[in-house]
Amino acid sequence: TAKHTIKTYYLQIKHGLTYLLWHKNIRWVLCLNMLATAYFAFFYTMQGPYLLEIGFKVTDLGWIYAIATAIEALTTYFTEKIHKKFTEKTCFAMIMASYVISTVSFGYAFGFPALTAYLFLKFASGFGTTFAEHYLQKHSTTKIRATLSSAQGFALDIVRIITIPIFGILVDKTSIQHVLLLLTGITLFFG
Fold first, then answer.
1. How does DSSP assign 4-28, residue by residue?
2. What is the DSSP code string of 84-124?
3. Please, are residues 51 and 173 in contact by the beta-carbon 8 Å criterion?
4. Could you give the angle at which helices 88-108 and 58-85 cross, rounded to 10 degrees?
5. Residues contacting residue 92 through CB under 8 Å, at least 6 positions apart
6. pLDDT tens-digit map of 38-62
């Protein structure tokens, strides 16, 4: 059996990242995943304070999270059926549009309209995450799939490490809504 050392793990991640960066389709989906990771890392960290800020009570949060998780799980379950009805480009456009619409709504809406945007975002999260993983598997060879998943996981962890403190500082200096609107601009630009 092969020895699992820090060096072999490093070489495996390096090989996966090199493949990710040189394969056009996979590089594109990695960039989309990095954008989505920064977006969701911020929003999942701030969702409790955000929901409280827009008028909900702490006692409401359990029900809101339960419903949102159910929506995300159902969307994940039906991703393949949704994907079969649309082209890959249309699916990616739907995912990006969902992020943008939700984020703009978060920046301006309060109460139940903002809650609707939050639940819509959970749809986008379930669909986008599952679809991106399917896309990565489809456009890579069997030999390197596990390595690509590891490399992608590593890259996404680095994105979280960098973006969460930066967005936290921005929230302290402005507000959650302003940072969400900034994320809308970033999503539109890169999307």
1. --HHHHHHHHHHHHHHHHHSHHHHH
2. HHS-HHHHHHHHHHHHHHHHHHHHH--HHHHHHHHHHHHHH
3. no
4. 160
5. 32, 131
6. 877 877 788 888 888 888 899 999 9
